[in-house]
Design goal:
This protein is of the alpha/beta class and about 325 residues long. About 30% of the residues lie in helices and about 20% in strands. It has a seven-stranded mixed beta sheet, with helices on both faces. Helix 1 crosses helix 9, helix 4 crosses helix 7 and helix 6 crosses helix 8. The longest helix has 18 residues.
Length: about 325
């Protein structure tokens, strides 16, 4: 048996079965479970550790473990945050965020010297695919996300209604979401609400020609990073967590304006409102037309995007950075 006595020890308090979560909670589960898998290769997970790690949304962090160093790995996606959630994160000894943008946001209410960034990673199974201009099938625009306004589905619908895309035979819009366990086609719009395996999700990315991600805010933006790793040309809001890995060199950024954003819980009910971002629909339309009109350039951006994610945003890198940060603060 391998001697692990010299390895750093972490009390990992959060362990979420992915199949029991939906929407935003599913994202936390994937992050939690995947990061733990890689941390276990370089550190010991044990309740005897002096450092305790929580990976939960701000509203679910209700108190720290007495007598230990308490680390809260969390995020938020808007310019302001509910008062009670601010009070929750302030209970932690240290904060870890998945992006620079979230770190800067939390520094409004927490000592910035005690906030650290550990970006998410993308699994290697999201393989790069060399694409080409489609001739014998429709040009497929793909959107993937929970049925939550924050993910930008309202903007996507507005785009299809405001343009001639809905009437063009050579294009189609594929909407992959949840809660609707079937595939429905209406004209050149496909709504897919099935629960897909990772393998089938990757096939979907590979079947598309352009990814649309008009998000209103992300802690990191793992869905966008996954699409980028496959080499899929991407159009996305240049705001919040995605700005750590997405820009004009690797994609098609869209600007935004600030307004009131509703916080939606897992049941679809409004919790309250905060100040957040709205992507500019007209710019998204312009970027879509640009991609279709010059797909060779779009493919070059997609190739650069894939290289960036493959080299800089991996789970082994995230796990090592997490352990290094915790070790440094324990000294």
């Amino acid at each position: 048996m391998k001697n692990t006595s010299n390895r750093f020890k972490i009390h990992w308090t959060t362990w979420i079965p992915e199949e029991k979560t939906i929407g935003n909670a599913f994202g936390y589960a994937v992050h939690n479970n995947t990061l733990r898998k890689y941390v276990e290769k370089i550190a010991d997970i044990t309740p005897e550790a002096e450092d305790v790690l929580f990976i939960v949304a701000p509203e679910f962090f209700k108190g720290k473990v007495p007598g230990k160093r308490n680390w809260l790995f969390t995020m938020f996606e808007a310019e302001t945050m509910p008062k009670e959630w601010i009070e929750n994160i302030q209970q932690a000894d240290f904060l870890i965020t998945p992006s620079t943008w979230v770190r800067d946001l939390f520094s409004k209410w927490f000592d910035k010297e005690k906030i650290f960034v550990v970006n998410h990673g993308v699994e290697p199974v999201f393989a790069y695919k060399k694409r080409k201009i489609p001739h014998n099938k429709p040009f497929r625009f793909l959107w993937v996300g929970a049925p939550n306004p924050r993910k930008g589905w309202e903007e996507v619908v507005a785009i299809w209604e405001k343009t001639d895309f809905a009437k063009l035979p050579g294009v189609e819009l594929y909407l992959k979401t949840t809660k609707y366990p079937k595939v429905v086609r209406k004209g050149n719009v496909i709504l897919d609400g099935r629960k897909l395996s990772t393998k089938d999700l990757i096939r979907l990315y590979h079947s598309a020609h352009c990814f649309i991600f008009p998000t209103r805010g992300e802690g990191f933006g793992l869905t966008l990073a996954e699409a980028m790793r496959t080499g899929l040309p991407c159009i996305a809001t240049e705001y919040s967590g995605v700005t750590d890995f997405f820009d004009a060199d690797v994609g098609y950024p869209v600007s935004h304006f600030l307004d009131e954003v509703d916080i939606i819980d897992q049941t679809g009910e409004k919790v309250q409102s905060v100040t957040g971002a709205f992507p500019k629909v007209e710019e998204i339309i312009e970027r879509m037309i640009e991609v279709v009109g010059d797909y060779k350039t779009a493919l070059k951006k997609g190739e650069r995007a894939s290289k960036r994610i493959r080299s800089k945003f991996t789970w082994p890198l995230a796990a090592q950075r997490l352990v290094n940060i915790m070790q440094e603060q324990a000294c």
